[in-house]
Amino acid sequence: MGGGVDVPRSSSYPMVEVPAAVDIVLSQAERVLEGEHVELEEVADRVLFEDVLAQGDVPPFRASIKDGYAVVQAEGPGIYDVSGEVTAGRQSHTAVGNGKVVYVTTGAPVPDEADAVVQVEWTKPAEEPGKIEIITGAPKVGHDIRPVGTDVKKGQTILSAREEVHMAEVGLLATCNVRNVPVYKNARVAVLSTGDELVEAGGELGFGKIVDSNRPMLLAAVGSVGGIPVDLGIATDEEQAVTSAFMEAMLKSDVLITSGGVSMGNKDFIKPLLARYGTVHFGRVMMKPGKPLTFATIEPNAFSEGVPSSRKLVIGLPGNPVSCFVCFHLVVSPLIRKLSGFRSPHNPRVMVRTKMELKLDPERPEYHRALVSWDVGQRALTAVTTGIQASSRLLSARSANGLLVLPRADRTLPVGEEVEAILIGQIL
Ligand SMILES: Nc1nc2c(c(=O)[nH]1)N[C@H]1C(S)=C(S)[C@@H](COP(=O)(O)OP(=O)(O)OC[C@H]3O[C@@H](n4cnc5c(N)ncnc54)[C@H](O)[C@@H]3O)O[C@H]1N2
Ligand code: MOO
């Protein structure tokens, strides 16, 4: 007798709306945030866990703003003996004042006796060797000198907890002599594909086999939003295989992303497994594609004494590759960004004008893959569909930089309609 006679005919999981699902995931993420110290070279694009104070004054000494001569301002124009020079980081000066000046370059420490700098353009060589003539004197005391700590004072808070570190902030940390930087830990995110039909890319395709596209795609995506990817390979559709991969994830990662096996089939083991060891917060979401999207948390010691050692988050993505793609952007990417400390982990949203008719889905809101660009003529953001939106067709995700949020309705949207778009890439 064939299988599938005794399978359930309806899902026991209530359908949740997408915003509620995202809120549930992010609120569970809040409980597992952790910090660590990293070297300056590793801090780019991460988020600060604590405030950071300047380790020293910037500049650490009175610095010349110009290439010129360090002078006593009150002595004014006239002929001066150049008694020495201070270039950035080096010095050989004797004295300033009483007819003497010292040559200084931009950024060099100004000798203590000097109270102003006269730029070279305001001077000329004097007839006598080793002397110069100051034609225009420094207008006031302090002229062209940056006092100690003008840019940053020692002990000043230069960056605050939860602030993002990018190019300028890396420079600021370095300039303030901060080497070990407190940041949120990046989550270790394990990726597991499930299915007897799957083979690695480049492998032999026997009867009914297809290439595992979800895992390479998800591993790449995890890295691109700041997670640390952990490859768990492919588990066959056997309870034992899925359970042991799940156990491995509990040891090696903070978050587990599975794909496949979350729907209604007789080999769909993910939901029962998660329910056995943890709490399934939702198992169906009102979205197209991505309906069987599942989220669970596993408490410490759920398997045995010490395993897992901390709370784990598990996202069960549907097997269809485009469903994976959409669910990653809507739920997984905000989760990873939240765990990395980002204050606003969501993708930006904009309003766009559609450039073609769009048939709406009467049952589920659709996240329609599109190319969003700036239309010079219309002076507006516009969107073009990526074509047939089948959840198996990865070409519909190719180059997509937006997900159009299309309402559930039994009608067709006309051309030029304003719709919301979630940006998942740079606007063209
Ligand atoms: N009776 C019902 N059947 C289905 C329903 C339903 O409500 N009732 N929902 C459909 C929807 S919507 C989706 S989405 C899929 C999700 O199913 P699963 O998550 O259980 O995924 P699988 O059945 O394992 O696979 C679906 C599809 O995707 C291919 N796949 C799986 N893994 C990969 C991979 N790593 N790389 C590439 N392709 C993959 C798999 O071969 C299947 O073609 O369920 C519908 N069914
Ligand atoms: O929700 Mo499924 O992801 O429509 O194909």
From TrEMBL:
InterPro entries linked to this entry: MoaB/Mog-like_dom_sf, MoaB/Mog_dom, MoCF_biosynth_CS, MoeA-like, MoeA_C_domain_IV, MoeA_C_domain_IV_sf, MoeA_linker/N, MoeA_linker/N_sf
Alphabetic keyword roster: ATP-binding, Magnesium, Metal-binding, Molybdenum, Molybdenum cofactor biosynthesis, Multifunctional enzyme, Nucleotide-binding, Transferase
Signal peptide stretch: none
Domain spans labelled MoaB/Mog: 190-338
Functional pathway: Cofactor biosynthesis; molybdopterin biosynthesis
GO molecular function ontology, one term from the record: molybdopterin molybdotransferase activity
Keyword check for ATP-binding: yes
GO terms for cellular component: cytosol
GO biological process, one term: Mo-molybdopterin cofactor biosynthetic process
Family classification: In the N-terminal section; belongs to the MoaB/Mog family.
Protein's recorded name: MoaB/Mog domain-containing protein
Organism encoding this protein: Rhodosorus marinus
